[in-house]
Amino acid sequence: MLRYREHRPGPDLRPHIECLWTVWDSVARADRTPERVLPDGCPELIVHLGDPFARLIGRRWVVQPRAFLAGTLTQPWMLRARSRVKTVGVRFRPGATTAVFPLSMSEARDRELRLAGLVGASSAAALIEPLRRARTDAGRFAAIEEWLTARLSVMAPRRSTARAAVALILKAHGRKRIDDVARALGWSRRRIERVFARDLGIRPKLFARIVRLNAVLATLDEPERTSAVDLALETGYFDQAHLLRDFRVLAGRAPRSRREIDGELARHFTRPERLRALLFPVD
Known about the structure:
By secondary structure, the protein is of the alpha+beta class. The chain has 11 helices and 10 strands. Strands 1-2-9-4-7-10 form a 6-stranded antiparallel β-sheet.
């Protein structure tokens, strides 16, 4: 059985990083069940210290790189852990990845970009080697925080980012019109599209759809939830058909409760408490 643990980073990293996490299994297995990872607007930095996972691309399972940035997803990813599982990850907040990596996130949308290609071989090794040497989760999390802090110090802060627009869309649970978001910030529609392409790699309207879908996922453990029509209206959809269409496109499945598990690892990513923290940030 896969075991999963999260760690909240220090105050200097919290504006950029939702959490650090690790997943492992002390027993090697060859019969892993596929995982369905849903879009949530949060890119991830992944380092596989055990066997890299494989991702279903078309009809083929393709082995992932050992260390890479997974960009913003616009569709579910089907992943399968291989025999020896020992992986660490960094979950970025939406729009925060470019504070650490010098790229336009449009290059990373629905893709894995090798870490060494983003920051150079020496900087990648400065993260990977301490992770390999660490003997505890605490040691690995400390190594990641040290590396991230160093990356932030060498990256020039941007004057114009998508952060303010992201915050408004999250606060509205994806229900706010993008023109209204731009107007509230004194931005043009062209500007908001440009900063979203750079900082998230997707259009703001699609980000709002992803946020709205996750607002639904955040409610699905409520025992009194019985009517899909009520659920659709309460979470900002026009009707049940609109809700089902977004789930089919963005999640690849129906909006059932979490009794329909997406996988041993992926179920942690759609925990209602985790999604509520994303939609109702406190810091």
